[in-house]
Amino acid sequence: MDGQNALQILLLIGGLTLVPAMLFCVTGFTRILIVLGFIRSALGTNTAPPNQVLVGIAVFLTIFVMAPTFIEIKDVAIDPLSENRITQTQALERAQLPLREFMFEQTRDKDLALFVKLADEPQPETRADVPTWVLIPAFIISELKTAFQIGFLIFLPFLVIDLVVATTLMSMGMVMLPPVFISLPFKILLFVLVDGWNLVTQSLVQSFS
Question: In terms of C-beta density within 10 A (0-12 exposed, 13-18 middle, 19 or more buried), how is residue 47 classed?
């Protein structure tokens, strides 16, 4: 029994080193962080919010979005393992199922078909036929595309403000004055007036449903 506990502790410590990679690869962290980066770029505030704040926001939004999946993993894998009702191998197999279900829901069929083809895998008939090592890169590509689509929509209103300010300055002959210097306060004001953080957070969370 002591040897089994020691092995579990050793595996747990080793698994902690994989947490950052798992966070990026099999959750919504990538999409959330990229969209938050787009917001900062669209506003033109290169250092506000700082990177640490953006990562912190992304982490806790990821926990919020992934909470149902994490709870299911705890119920079907972690709790039975801690009660010695299943083996570690069975726990790993059970833990994959909720994560795979989440990734399938967020993965485009086109991206999944691409990696199935690249892996020279036979055409899957069900989701269970798709290997996890094929599903993960397809999920990541889908997340990147979704994040850039959301980022494009975020950029549009701020791009309009930049164009209006630049055109106005040129018509007034003030070509030496950087348009960003004038447009930045207006973009921040617009973002505050429409309660931008609320809208972006709501859109991000609902994009996973």
Answer: exposed
Residue 102 has pLDDT above 60, yes or no: yes
Q: Is the pLDDT of residue 189 over 50?
A: yes
* Half-sphere exposure (Cβ direction) of 115: Cα atoms closer than 13 Å: 18
Q: Decide: residue 176, CB within 10 A, 0-12 exposed, 13-18 middle, 19+ buried.
A: exposed
Q: Which two tokens stand for residue 77?
A: 């894998």
Distance CA 52, CA 174 (A): 37
Looking at residue 175, its amino acid is V
pTM: 0.81
- Report which DSSP code applies to 128: G
Cβ atoms of 138 and 111 within 8 Å: the answer is: yes
CA neighbours closer than 13 Å in the CB half-sphere of residue 209: 6
Q: What CA–CA distance (Å, rounded) separates 179 from 177? A: 6
- CA dihedral over 20, 26, 27, 30, signed as positive or negative: positive
pLDDT at 1: 47
Distance CA 87, CA 82 (A): 10
